[in-house]
């Protein structure tokens, strides 16, 4: 399968698209954590107003994701591991034992017996750089990075959130589209994610993400 870039936007156009869809992006990413806020309630929280009937934990998750997405959209610095660390600090500060830092203990994952190795902090940049090799399209490289970060579980918590925001931090200045899984796609995503964790064969998940989860401005 050819993972050709689906969109060709300028950085400014991509930022405009992301900002216009900020609430949808926050809402979609919050569903990784099983939040109960509806899309209108998420909009109210993102706009800084109070919402009744939503737990403090859910509100905190949404507010932190808003900050994480704004950081990814603004994108002022070249990418390095420090960017992903900052994204994790922002989105997982209420969930993680050590937000913004590479984990140093084992973790377990839902719906799978796979246990990721404890990452060696000094080796993480090399792993990331290997996913971003130059002989692939930008889109394929970012999908490979997404799969690497999710399966490796570099952080104590918030790994899917951090992985998706990281690849979009990179995708926005490239203008190749926003990569995200919406609420309706979440069941299929999880069904494909579990066997990927078990086998490290990400072809089916990667092809599904490419076919269904990249969005942008069609300027043709």
From TrEMBL:
<dbReference type="InterPro" id="IPR003812">
    <property type="entry name" value="Fido"/>
</dbReference>
<feature type="domain" description="Fido">
    <location>
        <begin position="79"/>
        <end position="211"/>
    </location>
</feature>
<protein>
    <submittedName>
        <fullName>Filamentation induced by cAMP protein fic</fullName>
    </submittedName>
</protein>
<dbReference type="InterPro" id="IPR036597">
    <property type="entry name" value="Fido-like_dom_sf"/>
</dbReference>
């Amino acid at each position: 399968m050819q993972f050709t870039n689906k969109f060709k936007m300028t950085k400014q156009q991509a930022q405009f698209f992301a900002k216009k869809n900020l609430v949808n992006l926050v809402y979609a990413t919050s569903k990784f954590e099983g939040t109960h806020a509806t899309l209108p309630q998420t909009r109210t929280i993102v706009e800084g107003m109070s919402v009744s009937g939503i737990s403090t934990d859910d509100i905190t998750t949404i507010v932190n994701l808003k900050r994480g997405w704004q950081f990814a959209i603004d994108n002022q610095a070249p990418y390095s591991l420090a960017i992903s660390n900052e994204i994790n600090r922002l989105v997982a500060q209420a969930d993680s034992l050590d937000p913004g830092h590479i984990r140093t203990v084992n973790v377990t994952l839902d719906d799978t017996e796979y246990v990721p190795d404890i990452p060696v902090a000094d080796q993480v940049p090399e792993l990331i750089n290997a996913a971003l090799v130059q002989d692939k399209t930008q889109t394929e490289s970012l999908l490979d990075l997404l799969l690497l970060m999710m399966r490796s579980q570099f952080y104590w918590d918030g790994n899917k959130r951090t992985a998706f925001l990281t690849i979009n931090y990179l995708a926005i200045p490239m203008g190749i589209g926003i990569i995200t899984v919406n609420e309706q796609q979440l069941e299929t995503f999880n069904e494909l994610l579990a066997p990927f964790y078990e086998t490290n064969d990400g072809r089916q998940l990667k092809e599904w993400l490419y076919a269904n989860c990249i969005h942008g401005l069609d300027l043709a």
